[in-house]
């Protein structure tokens, strides 16, 4: 089956098997390997991307279901000139990542969370990221990163 | 040695420098093993045992062989001539340790659910997985051995040729009579049994690998998600009979390890064997369920601990007997894990009489091995809970009892009854600092007020004062423990012609930020920008020597090697500068990239000029070799002994059994601090793993030996909602045993936190008659404990 998506601003058309998951389409067929796979029970959130602006665990969706959609992955977050997105910057400044495996999913989940709730409390951030697991950071600095990004946006 | 300020000679060490690793990880540019694009690669998938203990009657692979896209299907018999030796265990802890033959695929018998039975090679991952389902195996089931005490009874023996389920008995009993006498003279004693449940390390990146054979040269490049590229290379060479010169191991970005990637796995050996057979790249990435079944587990011990004390609560002896679960086979360092804790069951206390023994036993479960802390969390948990038990029995405060028993700061370097020399410490000062931050009185008042009001939300405060031995390790000490390798670390520092600096390290980071910290060490010494420094690692062709990353060793051993190599390269540059300035090297002082003659700063020679001079070699001192490079391999003279006080404040709902962590304060002492940002991150991560052991995680099995927690939906890796912000502070007692004065911090949080949490829960419930609870303290278990108390 042929599917067409706008991925990080560019139109992409590929043939896919009906059973191909969106995450495998993004990684294997489009070659954007920043989106990671950490489980097979939609528990970890490492595969989180934006589909039409909403954060979605891309292992829970078939590529064909995303036909015609606009997708954003971690590779689309920094500006084309390489300037980090404010959330990416906040993650670096607050040491919100260690091994970095959960990080693309965390950043994507956090960015859609902040779009919905630009001025969250600590507890709201924790609940907003509940579907994303990290084994390295103990979440402390991830939560700090998201709060810092929220404050920065608030100041702009 | 007392508390001193962090060392900041060049102004870089001690700063919160942001990590160099981050931009590429944050933008998705970093490549993990599964991200690599390898044209023409074939995929392997393993058929794994679905029963815990059985003889294989037959395996029918014919349907799988004709399945679409399948290139080959192999069982043990097909590959038995492909290995030169069994899967390696590098730590034969005793001369008569029993080690069952262990091959990448099962030889006629499976010993745990997840044991490899057959491997399919296919041209896509889905084709390989589909073909797996077409393999038929007939099993003759045997009684599974699941419980440690059952195992030790030998009522069913797993490995018949060994005739017993006990792999070894390891003892550390310097003076048995003295221990017995201390117990017979004791005024107070406690005798406790604790269970260290099995844990699944669950690094977020599953294991993943690609083996790429050179089509004609017979060389192999192994890309694999490992903590130990160097050790793995040696072991692959030995296991497969391939010359070490023909194997290059590269660990690309590695998504966490926590000990679980400190191993030589069947899939690595199989992939290399098949790549050699088929002359094709072979790749494999584990499913999360395979990670739960076939990547090592951690912990798994039954601990019996007894303390003897005099009338004042001065502890006079500790006696410990451990049953340690090896799982079905011995992996790389499985038998040695309890030994890493064996010396630490007296904790931070000056206990003169010591007795430790450990029996390692086989079960029909996933093999265990090192998981964050490896042996030391177990030891810390036992002593810190037992000290609380003693305090309760004597009716004194747990804080006061600890103070009475601390190793006094004047006693360092402290020779312990277990035979170690503790490097440095000021435990009382560390505890004082923690108490001043905690402000315990209002908490205790609130706790009492809630009890008085009959509240169902009760408070508890738990303390754990931990010490660990890390910085593995002095090679001679490892030799005395029968460990199969050394504990040194190698470093090379090169100042390139343009004066940029290359650092080559034998450490293998997987989230610890070595590129950043190692740059800081060199930048601090050379007085240059960390941005001008490149750190090369995790590729055996680029960094040929290394002992890799585990046991909180990278900074104290690897960082020290880098520090010393930097000094050495600077000495060479100094000799070049002295030659150019026609002065003696002793007359030069160095700062911020320039040598200057003492007293006449106008006579100066930049490091950059020395680098270029070393490159052109036009005018070097007689006999000096060109190029500005120095290598150091450093073997530490001792372990390091980080320590600290950790306090947990919990609220327990007595109606639901739910435990909420209200506050967590950690005051750690890891010696001098290179990058506080990274140190704090390491503590946070360790804390959550330790707290998760105390409250949530357990690899549980049913009566048939099936793992019930084989997905992340069942195994409770906690999310952000379960924790408050942690409160961290520190004291600084430099280690005198390495040139940086550092101690290591990677495991501290996971070591210290479980007893702090459990002690807090018991404290919260002690007025209800609760004096014991096992981990994980799930709501159900807490609720049952409350309801059974006093019955
Ligand atoms: S890979 Fe999608 S949630 Fe884990
Ligand atoms: S940074 Fe390693 S899993 Fe989150």
Write the layout of secondary structure elements.
The complex is a heterodimer of chains A (156) and B (791).
Chain A: E1 2-7, E2 10-15, H1 22-29, E3 48-51, E4 54-57, E5 70-72, H2 86-93, H3 103-116, H4 122-128, H5 140-155
Parallel strand pairs in A: 1-5
Antiparallel strand pairs in A: 1-2, 3-4, 3-5
Helix pairs in contact in A: 2-5
Chain B: H1 22-26, E1 42-48, E2 54-60, H2 62-65, E3 70-75, H3 76-79, E4 109-110, E5 116-122, H4 125-132, E6 136-141, H5 148-153, E7 166-172, H6 176-185, E8 188-199, E9 208-213, E10 220-224, H7 229-240, E11 247-250, H8 266-278, E12 282-285, H9 288-294, E13 298-309, E14 315-327, H10 337-342, E15 353-362, H11 376-394, H12 398-405, E16 414-415, E17 421-422, H13 427-438, H14 440-452, E18 457-467, H15 475-480, E19 489-495, E20 501-505, H16 514-526, E21 533-536, H17 554-581, E22 588-591, E23 594-597, E24 600-606, H18 607-616, E25 628-634, E26 643-653, E27 659-669, H19 676-695, E28 727-730, H20 748-765, H21 779-788
Parallel strand pairs in B: 1-12, 10-11, 14-15, 20-21, 27-28
Antiparallel strand pairs in B: 1-5, 2-4, 2-6, 3-5, 7-15, 8-13, 9-10, 9-12, 13-14, 16-17, 18-26, 19-20, 19-25, 22-23, 23-24, 26-27
Helix pairs in contact in B: 11-20, 16-17, 17-18, 19-20
The structure holds FE2/S2 (inorganic) cluster (FES) (2 copies).
One FE2/S2 (inorganic) cluster (FES) sits between chains A (97-103, 134-137) and B (204, 255-256, 511).
Pfam family, one (chain B): MoCoBD_1
Domain Aldehyde oxidase/xanthine dehydrogenase a/b hammerhead (chain B): 27-143
GO molecular function (chain B): iron ion binding; oxidoreductase activity
């Amino acid at each position: 089956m042929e599917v067409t998506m706008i991925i990080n601003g560019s139109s992409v058309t590929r043939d896919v098997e009906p059973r191909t998951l969106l995450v495998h389409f993004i990684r294997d067929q489009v070659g954007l390997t920043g989106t990671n796979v950490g489980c097979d029970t939609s528990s970890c959130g490492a595969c989180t991307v934006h589909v039409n602006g909403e954060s979605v665990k891309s292992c829970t969706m078939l590529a064909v279901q995303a036909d015609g959609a606009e997708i954003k992955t971690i590779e689309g977050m920094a500006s084309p000139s390489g300037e980090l997105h404010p959330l990416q910057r906040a993650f670096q400044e607050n040491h919100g990542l260690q091994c970095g495996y959960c990080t693309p999913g965390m950043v994507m989940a956090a960015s859609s969370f902040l779009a919905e709730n630009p001025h969250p409390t600590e507890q709201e951030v924790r609940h907003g990221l509940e579907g994303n697991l990290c084994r390295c950071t103990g979440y402390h600095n991830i939560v700090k990163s998201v709060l810092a990004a929220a404050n920065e946006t608030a100041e702009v | 040695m007392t508390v001193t300020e962090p060392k900041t000679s060049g102004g870089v060490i001690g700063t919160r420098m942001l990590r160099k690793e981050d931009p590429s990880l944050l933008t998705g540019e970093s490549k993990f093993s599964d991200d690599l694009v390898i044209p023409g690669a074939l995929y392997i998938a393993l058929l794994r045992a679905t029963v815990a203990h059985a003889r294989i009657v037959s395996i029918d692979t014919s349907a799988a062989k004709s399945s679409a896209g399948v290139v080959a299907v192999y069982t043990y018999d097909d590959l038995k001539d492909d290995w030169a030796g069994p899967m390696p265990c590098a730590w034969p802890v005793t001369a008569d340790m029993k080690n069952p033959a262990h091959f990448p695929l099962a030889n006629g018998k499976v010993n745990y659910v997840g044991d490899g039975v057959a491997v399919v090679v296919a041209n896509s991952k889905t084709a390989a997985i589909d073909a797996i389902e077409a393999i038929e195996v007939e099993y003759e089931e045997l009684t599974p051995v699941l419980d440690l005490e059952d195992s030790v009874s030998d009522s069913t023996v797993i490995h018949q040729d060994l005739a017993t389920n006990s792999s070894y008995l390891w003892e550390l009993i310097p003076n048995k009579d003295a221990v017995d006498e201390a117990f017979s003279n004791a005024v107070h004693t406690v005798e406790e049994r604790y269970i260290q449940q099995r844990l699944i390390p669950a690094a977020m990146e599953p294991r993943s690998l690609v083996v790429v054979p050179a089509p004609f040269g017979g060389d192999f490049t192994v890309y694999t998600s490992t903590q130990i590229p160097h050790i793995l290379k040696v072991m692959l060479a030995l296991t497969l009979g391939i010359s070490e010169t023909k194997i290059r191991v590269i660990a690309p970005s590695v998504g966490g390890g926590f000990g679980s990637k400190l191993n030589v796995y069947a899939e690595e050996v199989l992939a290399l064997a098949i790549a050699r057979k088929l002359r094709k790249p072979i790749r494999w990435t584990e499913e999360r369920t395979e990670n739960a079944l076939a990547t090592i587990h951690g912990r798994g011990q039954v601990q019996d601990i007894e303390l003897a004390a005099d009338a004042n609560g001065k502890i006079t002896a500790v006696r410990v007997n451990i049953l340690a679960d090896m799982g079905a086979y011995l992996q790389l360092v499985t038998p040695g894990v309890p030994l890493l804790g064996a010396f630490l069951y007296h904790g931070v206390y000056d206990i003169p009489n010591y007795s430790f023994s450990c029996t390692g036993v086989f079960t029909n479960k996933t093999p265990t091995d090192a998981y964050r802390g490896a042996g030391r969390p177990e030891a810390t948990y036992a002593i810190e809970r037992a000290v609380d038990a003693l305090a309760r029995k004597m009716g004194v405060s747990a804080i006061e009892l600890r103070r009475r028993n601390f190793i006094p700061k004047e006693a360092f370097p402290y020779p312990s009854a277990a035979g170690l020399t503790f490097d440095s410490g000021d435990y009382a000062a560390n505890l004082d600092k923690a108490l001043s931050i905690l402000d315990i009185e209002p908490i205790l008042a609130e706790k009492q007020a809630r009890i008085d009001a009959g509240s169902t939300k009760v408070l508890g405060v738990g303390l754990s004062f931990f010490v660990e031995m890390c910085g593995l390790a002095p090679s001679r000490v490892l030799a005395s423990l029968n460990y199969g390798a050394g504990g040194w670390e190698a470093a090379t520092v090169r100042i390139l012609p343009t004066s940029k600096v290359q650092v080559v390290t034998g450490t293998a980071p997987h989230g610890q930020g070595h590129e950043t910290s190692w740059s800081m060490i060199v930048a601090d010494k050379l007085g240059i920008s960390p941005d001008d420094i490149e750190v090369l690692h995790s590729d055996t062709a680029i960094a040929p020597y290394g002992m890799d990353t585990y046991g909180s060793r990278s900074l104290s051993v690897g960082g020290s090697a880098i520090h010393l190599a930097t000094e050495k390269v600077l000495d060479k540059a100094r000799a070049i500068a002295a030659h150019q300035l026609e002065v003696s090297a002793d007359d030069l002082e160095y700062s911020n990239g320039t040598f200057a003659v003492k007293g006449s700063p106008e006579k100066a020679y930049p490091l950059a000029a020395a680098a270029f001079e070393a490159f052109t070699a036009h005018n070097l001192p007689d006999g000096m070799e060109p190029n500005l490079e120095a290598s150091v391999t450093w073997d530490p003279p001792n372990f390091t002994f980080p320590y600290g006080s950790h306090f947990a404040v919990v609220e327990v709902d007595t109606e639901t059994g739910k435990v909420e962590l209200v506050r967590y304060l950690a005051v750690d002492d890891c010696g001098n601090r290179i990058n506080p940002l990274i140190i704090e991150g390491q503590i946070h991560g360790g804390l959550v793993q330790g707290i998760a052991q105390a409250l949530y995680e357990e690899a549980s099995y049913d009566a048939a030996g099936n793992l019930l927690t084989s997905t992340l939906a069942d195994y409770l890796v906690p999310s952000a909602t379960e924790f408050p912000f942690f409160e961290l502070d520190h004291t600084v007692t430099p280690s005198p045993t390495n040139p940086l004065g550092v101690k290591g911090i990677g495991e501290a949080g996971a070591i210290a936190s479980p007893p702090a949490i459990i002690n807090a829960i018991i404290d919260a419930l002690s007025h209800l008659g609760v004096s014991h609870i096992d981990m994980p303290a799930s709501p159900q278990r807490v609720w049952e404990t409350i309801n059974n108390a006093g019955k």
